[in-house]
Write a structure and sequence with these properties.
With 156 residues, this protein is of the alpha+beta class. It is built from 2 helices and 10 strands. The chain has helices spanning 2-22, 111-115, and strands spanning 52-60, 63-71, 79-86, 89-92, 96-97, 103-108, 119-120, 134-139, 145-151, 154-155. It has a 5-stranded mixed sheet. Strands 3, 4, 5, 8 and 9 form a 5-stranded antiparallel sheet that branches. The model is unreliable at 1-48 (pLDDT under 50).
């Protein structure tokens, strides 16, 4: 009896998978990249998260401040780092845990913000330059860049 039940479950799963593949014929909906080793494309109605960065930065005569907010991160509860590059060099944060695919990582030269968890950067880390003043990257646990964003900073 158990073998019959197990066989019926496998047949039902195969029919569901086949049915999902048949529903994927909607050419107006963007599809996710496919793995060449797969025999068929994933259904078009399954959305794929795309990581993005909201980058804010400011520079003052005696302070540099950068906020890197990532969203749409996969895994949604994984560990991530931010790496920022400006005229003062490149600095990578400690590991931060994403919650529901979002992570907030701060860099600052202010001692109070550093004590509150911001990654230390020099007061002159950001200076005016050609192109974006700051480029931020979010890296996954394996060190791979999952999102990049550049920005011109506000001057206070």
């Amino acid at each position: 009896m158990r073998n019959i039940s197990l066989s019926l479950t496998r047949v039902a799963l195969a029919m569901i998978v086949a049915g999902l593949g048949a529903c994927a014929d909607n050419s107006s909906t963007p599809t996710a990249p496919t793995d060449p080793s797969l025999k068929s494309s994933p259904p078009a109605d399954i959305s794929v998260a795309v990581a993005s960065i909201r980058l804010r930065c400011e520079r003052r005569a005696n302070r540099s401040k950068i906020s890197v907010d990532g969203s749409g991160l996969v895994p949604r509860a994984g560990n991530f780092r931010a790496r920022v590059t400006a005229s003062g060099g490149t600095v990578t944060s400690t590991v931060h845990r994403a919650v529901a695919g979002d992570v907030e990582i701060d860099f600052d030269s202010n001692p109070n913000d550093i004590r509150a968890g911001a990654t230390r950067i020099a007061a002159n880390f950001i200076t005016a330059r050609t192109g974006p003043d700051v480029v931020a990257r979010i890296l996954n646990a394996g060190g791979q860049v999952v999102a990049t964003q550049g920005a011109d900073c506000t001057v206070q």
